[in-house]
Write a structure and sequence with these properties.
Blueprint (H helix, E strand, L loop, with lengths): L6 H12 L22 E17 L2 E22 L7 E14 L2 E2 L8 E7 L2 E6 L6 H10 L18 E3 L2 H7 L4 E15 L4 E14 L4 E15 L4 E17 L2 E17 L1 H8 L6 E5 L5 E6 L3 E3 L9 E5 L8 E9 L5 H15 L3 E8 L2 E12 L3 E11 L4 E9 L1 H15 L3 E2 L2
């Protein structure tokens, strides 16, 4: 005779069938990270830094708060793995956003919107910008960042209550947006849990030391609690969170700077459709404040513009360029300040235009104005033996009581036309500071 179970017993039977068996407490978990082709991964990074700074210059000592926010977003795509040899790869990293704000002032570099081709051969990484150019310092920074394409090694067998040590240098570099060297990185992690989706949570502590590229001496240390989540089914990182105490010491010339405070860094990953949608979005370039060295003239340029060094006779000018429209010929803005030497700004501008009229076929001459005052604008074409025909827009403005500012936009084709149209927005930000 068969016994029909009571409703409560039946529900327990069904529950036991629907819920998968839990992982045995001591069962090993494979945490290794394995890259894949044709599976783009979107990475979002955010760093907040709050320090109390002490600056010592000779006998003077001062204190001030320092706040910094960095937000970086990029997509990684592997196009070839283990070719031509095991461990080699070809990849592409697309920087969708690289924004840095210090003390409420934007300090974005020119890497937003840049795509980087990365190759690793016999353990050595190389990187090349795809159709763009950048300063040497930023290119070196991108190459250092590329170490994170493979992230860091995690054990093939991890168990709860069995801590393990790792050296996540690439994770530290990305989380802290390091512009320099990671001199030390040591983390002690432990497997805390694995959920039904195969997400393994690792908890522990992470201590790192970094040295800024431009600092003559000194370093910064970051120490705190760290949580890393690994997708054990896809074998990739899912998220990372690191927060704690930060301290730094810098020395340059007769000035020393020390700071202590807190930091919080977060990193998240999304793959597949989310990454493809991010790649399809229009890139946004924030306007970044700039100031000339020749005179206290400030203005704003979109972040894809960057400053370039000049030599020889041109060393008296300051040059900013953008390769947004291609790296075969960059569009450039040249700024130069001249002393009036007792003459009025109007008479000096008239004389300068008369000289240009003798050399070039001038057109579109017109009066213009900006916060610096009223000036003149003119267009003409340069015929350079090496560069060929180059379009030029030149504007002259008073710069205070005794100086004159010359601004010249140089470029070719559609790139020049696009930046000439955008110049009117930049023009409105020209002003004396201080």
């Amino acid at each position: 005779m068969h016994t029909i179970p009571a409703p409560r017993s039946l529900s327990l039977v069904l529950l036991s069938i629907l819920i998968p068996a839990s992982r045995s407490p001591g069962e090993a978990v494979d945490l290794r990270l394995v890259p894949r082709t044709d599976d783009p991964v979107l990475v979002d990074v955010r760093l907040e830094l709050n320090l109390e700074m002490e600056i010592v210059a000779g006998k003077k000592r001062s204190k001030a708060p320092f706040e910094h926010l960095s937000e970086v977003e990029f997509v990684d795509e592997f196009t070839a793995l283990d070719q031509p040899a095991a461990g080699d790869f070809d990849a592409r990293r697309s920087y969708l956003k690289w924004e840095e704000t210090s003390q409420d002032e934007r300090e974005d570099n020119e890497m937003t919107g840049v795509r980087v081709r990365v190759t690793r051969r016999a353990g050595t990484l190389s990187a090349e910008l795809d159709g763009r150019m950048a300063r040497k310092s930023e290119l070196e920074r991108v190459i250092d960042h590329a170490e994170s394409l493979s992230w860091f090694e995690l054990p093939a067998e991890a168990r709860p209550e069995e801590p393990f040590l790792v050296e996540p240098e690439s994770l530290v570099r990305v989380l802290l947006d390091v512009d320099g060297d990671v001199t030390s990185s040591k983390a002690q992690l432990e497997l805390a849990s694995v959920d039904d989706a195969g997400l393994a949570t690792l908890t522990g502590t992470l201590l790192a030391a970094v040295r800024q590229r431009e600092a003559e001496s000194g370093q910064a240390t970051f120490q705190g609690t760290c949580t890393v989540v690994v997708d054990t089914r896809a074998h990739r990182l899912s998220s990372a969170d690191w927060k704690g105490q930060a301290s730094l010491s810098l020395a340059g010339g007769e000035v020393t700077t020390n700071g202590k405070g807190t930091f919080a860094a977060q990193l998240s990953f999304s793959n597949g459709a989310a990454a493809r949608e991010a790649l399809a979005r229009k890139v946004v370039y924030r306007d970044v404040p700039r100031t000339l060295d020749q005179a206290p003239v400030g203005f704003e340029l979109p972040s894809h513009w960057f400053e370039r060094e000049l030599a020889g006779e041109a060393a008296g000018s300051e040059l900013f360029s953008t390769s947004l429209h291609g790296d075969d010929f960059m569009v450039s803005l040249e700024f130069r300040v001249f002393a009036l030497e007792g003459d009025s700004a109007d008479s000096t501008i008239d004389a300068a235009l008369a000289t240009l009229d003798e050399q070039y076929d001038l057109h579109e001459q017109k009066p213009v104005s900006c916060p610096l005052g009223k000036g003149r604008s003119v267009r003409f074409r340069l015929d350079d033996a090496e560069l060929g025909k180059v379009e030029s827009l030149l504007e002259l403005y008073p710069c205070g009581r005794d100086r004159l500012l010359r601004v010249q936009l140089l470029g070719k084709g559609d790139g020049f036309d696009a930046e000439r149209k955008a110049w009117s927005k930049v023009q409105k930000t020209l002003k004396l500071r201080g």
